[in-house]
Specification:
By secondary structure, this protein is an alpha+beta fold. The protein has helices at about 65-70, 70-80, 100-110, 150-160, 165-185, 195-200, 200-210, 215-230, 235-255, 265-275, 280-290, 295-310, 315-325, 330-340, 375, 410-430, 465-470, and strands at about 85, 95, 110-115, 190, 350-355, 355-360, 360-365, 370, 435, 455-460. The chain has 17 helices and 10 strands. The strands form 3 sheets. A 5-stranded mixed beta sheet has the order 1-2-8-5-3. Strands 4-10-9 form a 3-stranded antiparallel beta sheet. Helix 5 packs across helix 7 (about 200-210), helix 7 (about 200-210) packs across helix 8 and helix 12 packs across helix 14. The protein is globular. The termini are far apart.
């Protein structure tokens, strides 16, 4: 049985004196994932008052020790309480689903609705579930909050933007963005890979796919930063950023009606104008959720992935040798393994039972919230051999890192492209990349849905990027 986890204050500032990426921030998840910030960050939980005490013998959940390494607690839950009723730090009571078979069933069960109107308690109206500020900003009609048939219609309109063919056409631009970001710090011989690389890459990529003009993309970087930095209040800064994004996107849609281009927002306008029943409000909400949901998953995929390779040097060496030989197979299977082993999304977003049902032998009442713990399911020994071992060549790897069923991550092809490009380029251009601090000094963001590092300081042999440009 794992030790009890206790809270501790791990607050710090990054090398620029800015607040670190948040200890309870908000954020994303394409298609099925979005980070729910609780009403109080784990650091605000008194050390003597664990956020969750399921029983006298069970592990404490959602405090700082848990955020650092949740996997022992999840192993205990899988064995002793696989469908587990708990009170979250926000005060909302929910079921946690931790075994792979139960998780896969729950993700595909249409009796578990994404619509918060089915919640038995008015928690969503109080801002305890969902994206902060989305209701006031009239942004509720997006893929994370709706069920069929509306979900089917809206997803069909957007899915054409994320086909493998269209994502492949975008690959040269992702590579150019990756090289540009590395060029910006390569001469220094040190960097914070979260703030200087993993964070801006997906922001700029999704902005370009959506058709946000380059002169406005830094605004989105600022708004996204507010979503995952710790501000003056646990949710207020996020809600303000949501409102700013909503206002900007509404204005951008109006401008693009007179100047349609080859981008996703233009495609949404064309769909609305050609009888596909996409209202202007739906188009704005869709553009918003793709921006809002389109970055932190990739931030964490890159950050967690590099961290896992640091902690498993033998696997890293295998990958570097494979890349040096011009091979791509190990990179492809490796990114899938990194998604399984320590993926960017810890829990799938909220689901609510529309009728009484049984899950893992436990009775779920109508209106109960259900949270599928993807991180626990993807380490289930009943499904994966040696689940706590990182094996980049693992092929039997139907992980749930991007979900399952009709809410499977819409942006998975783009996220995979960004993850593969980022890791391959880092390991090739900076082959001696190493942690600049002891591993135990790293701090993890202690939220509810997402799992990622606050910072990732690294060092390497400084490079002359001017010579590269010549």
């Amino acid at each position: 049985m794992p030790e009890k986890f206790r809270s501790r204050d791990g607050r710090s500032t990054d090398s620029r004196g800015e607040p670190p990426i948040s200890d309870g921030g908000s954020a994303p998840g394409y298609g099925h994932q979005v980070h729910e910030q609780t009403s109080g960050t784990p650091a605000e939980t008194p050390a003597d008052t664990p956020a969750d005490t399921p029983s006298a013998e069970g592990p404490t959940l959602f405090d700082w020790e848990f955020a650092t390494d949740p996997y022992p607690a999840y192993a205990w839950l899988r064995e002793h309480s696989p469908v587990h009723r708990t009170k979250l730090p926000s005060g909302v009571e929910a079921w946690l689903v931790t075994r792979y078979a139960d998780a896969r069933q729950a993700l595909a069960d249409q009796r578990l609705s994404k619509n918060p109107a089915h919640h038995a308690e008015p928690a969503h109206a109080k801002g305890k579930t969902g994206i902060p500020g989305e209701r006031k900003a009239e942004l509720m009609t997006h893929l994370l909050n709706i069920d069929p048939p509306d979900h089917t219609r809206l997803r069909r309109l957007v899915s054409k933007a994320f086909t493998p063919r269209r994502v492949a056409e975008f690959a040269p631009r992702v590579q150019a963005l990756t090289d540009h970001l590395i060029d910006a710090f390569a001469e220094k011989g040190e960097a914070d890979l979260i703030h200087e690389f993993a964070f801006p890459l997906p922001i700029y990529a999704i902005c370009e796919m959506l058709g946000v003009p380059r002169e406005d993309q830094d605004d989105f970087r600022d708004w996204a930063g507010m979503m995952i930095r710790h501000g003056g209040g646990p949710r207020g800064g996020v809600a303000r950023s949501v409102k700013q994004m909503r206002t900007y996107l509404g204005e951008l849609i109006h401008r693009k009606r007179d100047d349609l281009g080859d981008d996703l927002i233009s495609d949404l306008i064309r769909a609305s104008d050609h009888g596909d029943h996409l209202t202007e409000g739906e188009a704005t909400a869709m553009a918003f959720i793709l921006l809002f949901a389109g970055f932190e998953t990739t931030v964490n995929l890159i950050g967690n992935g590099v961290h896992s390779l640091f902690m498993n040097p033998g696997q890293r060496e295998r990958l570097q040798l494979s890349l040096a030989a011009g091979e791509s197979g190990l990179l492809a299977t490796g990114v899938e393994e990194l998604l399984r082993y320590d993926g960017p999304v810890e829990l799938a977003t909220w689901r609510f039972a529309t009728e009484p049902l049984t899950l893992g032998g436990m009775p779920i009442e109508a209106g109960d919230p259900v949270l599928v713990v993807l991180a626990a399911a993807d380490r289930d020994p009943e499904r994966f051999a040696d689940p706590d071992t990182l094996d980049l060549s693992r092929t039997d790897n139907q992980h749930l890192g991007y979900g399952h069923g009709i809410h499977y991550c819409l942006g998975a092809p783009l996220a995979r492209l960004e993850g593969q490009t980022a890791l391959a380029t880092l390991l090739t251009r900076l082959p001696d990349l190493e942690l600049a601090v002891p591993p135990q000094d790293l701090r993890w963001r202690g939220g509810l849905i997402m799992r990622g590092l606050r910072t990732l300081p690294v060092r390497f042999a400084a490079q002359n990027t001017c010579a590269k440009a010549d």
